[in-house]
Amino acid sequence: MPGKQPGAQRRRRWAPKVKTGCLTCRSRRVKCDENRPSCTRCTSARRRCEGYDRNPWSTSAAAFHRQPTNGMTPIYAQATPQEKHLFHVFCAETAGQVSAGFDSTFWSVDVPQACQLHPAIWHSALAIASAQMTQMTWTMGGSSTQHHDDVGFKQYTKAIGHLVQATQKTDPSFDEQSLILMATVLLLGFASLRGNFNQVQFFARHGLELFAKWDFGERAKRQQQSLRSNVLSVRSLISLLDNLFVQYSWACPAANPPKHAQSSPATTSPKTPFTNITEAYHEYQALQIAHLEALRAQALGSTNGDWQPFRDIRQAWLRRLSACKAKLLQARREGGHESKSWLMLQVGLLGLQVCFQGKAIANELYWDKLIPKLRRIVDIAEQVFERPKTHAERVPAAVFHFAPSPLGILYMVASACREYATRTRAIALLRRMQQRDGLLDSGLFACLSEAKMRIEATGRDLVGLTEPKRCTCIPEEYVCGHHRVRDVGIEFLERGLVRLNFESFDGGARPEGMKSLTVHCNGNWCKR
């Protein structure tokens, strides 16, 4: 080549070393915005985002020894090329999405290994991967999603068959129970992705009934030393079931949820600081279960007049909450953890504190004392979900994950807060998020919240007043106690219909004070 001296070596253009971000941006040595499941830098340039590597500081050495080798198990060896491709999609993309930054080792190592050991988990995971591909095709303007729908439903049907066969065993081992519960959770995820909340409710109840029947949580406590060889992390699996129980208790109170004992490995919070997000996540889930225990003790005290058990549980829970908040703050300060996952836990802890302080059966004015905390919840949630807009932006498909979610907390703000600006901000977030988490759906919550605001604004016909009651509402600023409404529960009906049951605060629990409103959910948005 002209001008090139003999023996001269070509110098590589300098680029900074990139140690964080998705695998694609790291290989290209460019800054990544670390948006999940696919970073915006890749998707905006129409590049394939290869996802994120496991966080080394939250991954134990034992987990790597359990990592499966593709092709070494009969299930993988007998799989079709299409199934192997779906399994690759699940490992490379779906696992990162459903974990949402929490319990990444469980989803990137444990679950893929369990897939190759139990056919029900294998086909359930493939069904979820296919459903995710359906969403990606729709979001990117693909011509048709029917193919992925058909493939996903075929895998779902196979998973159901294997799950039924597995549950017929009279005395399954603890390892087998773990795999059956995991398959049930994955099938619930597939039903939620498809927007079939009747099936979601069925799988939630089925899994919780098995959890209670097998006394799984207590058995895990007794066998902690012998569980190291278990395929799945038992604590992670229990956290998944804890989350389902919290959702089921709220969404289906009339269905008499199965008894769910306190299932955390320890009855009190460890005093050592959090070393990673997974430890904080497990403690948060245990706090949610303990909160339900306190509510049950409160209900029992109102019945028998013995309030001492509730007072004891309340004080213990408040101490545990305070310790968890302090450890979370310390971990963020020392480690510089400002990721969305840590902020999400902060939202969750604030929401738990508000729920515990709020008195659902008290005068509605009590919630006004909590408005500063409700504002703070929305402020942090906006930081978590703030994202750049593009010219070609369209309504995104609903994203499903098995992780701490702000959906229920934002719905509480949109329902309980009487400050108009804060409520509308919470509803706007729910509309924009388009996310699902088990029995929770952001679009459905946004629709229900807007319906309640319309009822309170123009609800004189639905919540009539008799003398000497008088309305003192101020439009778009203040709702009087007579027209303030609260939801009593929701019912999932057929064909995407959802019924919201509500009552006015001054209506008490009288049947004549109960009203209902039916909304329609078509999978991505709702309408009255």
From TrEMBL:
Residues 21-49 form the Zn(2)-C6 fungal-type domain. InterPro entries: Transcr_Regulatory_Proteins, Zn2-C6_fun-type_DNA-bd_sf, Zn2Cys6_DnaBD. It holds the Pfam family Zn_clus. Keywords: DNA-binding, Metal-binding, Nucleus, Transcription, Transcription regulation, Zinc. Gene3D superfamilies: Zn(2)-C6 fungal-type DNA-binding domain. Signal peptide: none annotated. It comes from the Eukaryota. GO terms for molecular function: DNA binding; DNA-binding transcription factor activity, RNA polymerase II-specific; zinc ion binding. This is Zn(2)-Cys(6) zinc finger domain protein. It comes from Metarhizium robertsii.
